[in-house]
Amino acid sequence: MNELSLFDLPRLFSYQFFQHALLGGTIAALVCAWVGLFLILRKEAMIGDGIAHTAFGGIALGLLLGINPLLSALAVSILAVLGISYMRKKEMAQSDAAIAVMLALGFSAGLIIISLAGGFNVELFSYLFGSILTIDRSDLLIVAVLGISTALFLGMFYKEILSITFDEEASRLMGLPVTTLSLAFNVLVALTIVLSIKVIGMILVVAILVLPGLAALQLKLSFKRTVCAAMGFGVFSMVTGISLSAIYDVAASGIIVFTAAGVFLFAAAYRRLG
Amino acid sequence: MKTPVIEVKDLSVRRGNEMVIKDATFTISRGDYVGIVGPNGGGKTSLLLTLLGIIPLERGTIRLFGKDISSFSQWERIAYVSQDATNFDVNFPLTVRELVSLGRIRRNLIGRKLRKDDWNAVDETLRFMGIENIAHRRIGELSGGQKQRVFVAKALVRNPDIIFLDEPVTGVDAETQEKFYKKLSDLNITRGTTIMIVSHDLAAVFCRMSKVMCVNREVHMADITEELEPDEILKKVYGEHFHFVFHRHQCSGVFEHE
Known about the structure:
Shape of chain B: globular
Helix content of chain B: 25-40%
CATH architecture of chain A: Orthogonal Bundle
Order of helices and strands of chain A: HHHHHHHHHHHH
Number of strands of chain A: 0
Oligomer: heterodimer
Distance between the termini of chain B: 31 Å
Strand content of chain B: 15-25%
Number of strands of chain B: 10
Shape of chain A: globular
Largest sheet of chain B: 6 strands, mixed
Number of domains of chain B: 1
Order of helices and strands of chain B: EEEHEEEHHHEHEHEEHH
CATH class of chain A: Mainly Alpha
Number of helices of chain A: 12
Helix content of chain A: over 70%
CATH class of chain B: Alpha Beta
Number of domains of chain A: 1
Number of helices of chain B: 8
Structural class of chain A: mainly alpha
Structural class of chain B: alpha/beta
CATH topology of chain A: ABC transporter involved in vitamin B12 uptake, BtuC
């Protein structure tokens, strides 16, 4: 692979592994950008990081039990979301403290499982840092199903989620079920993170959630156009990252995040100079 | 006789250990334009929130459109603009048209896609409020007066029968306030919308509105007529030392630009 150059890019498109990577990456980028924009506007970006780290426990459990780790990560992530909501509702902890508790619980559960199982080596590593170029059909199916479900839900309820994001109190007064919608949105965040784990890894997933939305917000557009711009930046970063990774044989997640960060800096500079 | 839309009898409201409204009895009829006045902390906002079903009542009854509040379900008929509505993140990526369209969300039909008639209602409301020229501006770029109109438009786009406004003109200049009150008068006259507005602008209340409601734990309401002595009713809530020098002929001066 490391003997390829940019001119070999068209040839890469004929390989199935590359097609799978691009398809999975694009789905993840589109959904992450949309969900991530809401996370930024709700000032809850760190919930993404918290849930991603909690998912580590789920991945370890899946590897131990021999089931698809993405499915066990999904179950653990949703439990984490419910746990965070419960702690907030019962006033056991503020939002950031509740996230910290779940993050620590999930991650330490993962560590215990790994040490009990005697380590999972390379496979676990691929979930920590992503392994988009080795994504197989079953992973792709999970990514597609989670991605389409998330997009359908957001497409249907984005007005309501936008309303509670903009002004929770006013939305409550309008009679919207704010608590239920917030919980549903956080479950959506869990789904989005799990579908992105194989693509970018649980350590860096927060970057692809937040950076495209932040870049789009620099452009001072309407909400609809901000969503489109965030998706465009997300897909651009993903496709660039996957392509350069395949050609130069370097970690895809690293290049994806670096590209997304570059787009954000460029957009921020454009806003100040433009 | 005008149709009653809000009937309150012997209402008492408690917030924490404090009784914020005590034994209030009043009736608001369709098309009334009510100015709610009273000292800060006197219970004006609590009263509105109780009428909206947000704060539970301690004692008494509230009937909305003839139905007891406990069984009332047509909340889309009542709109509310809070005093904090215009304090939002100025970087929030929303245009005026997008924000006003959020007012078309219905509590019993969530997930419903906005249709052509919804967008027609949005555009018509923007025209009515005189803000169609800023429809595509981001809300963070607006002046104080424009923001108020936008939030009233968001409340109006649902075609409510009653609109509650909690200190909507705080922090804007006198001319913008006058234009805003003029717009509300238009709304009251042309659409027959019942308006209840918390205001510290006593001149605007006595010049513009049909009823004054004085709130300071107790609630006193009166029709604003030639015979009403504003000083008398205001003393009931502001105290005996309070003097409001007001002559009806001042109204033509205040709003002479119309």
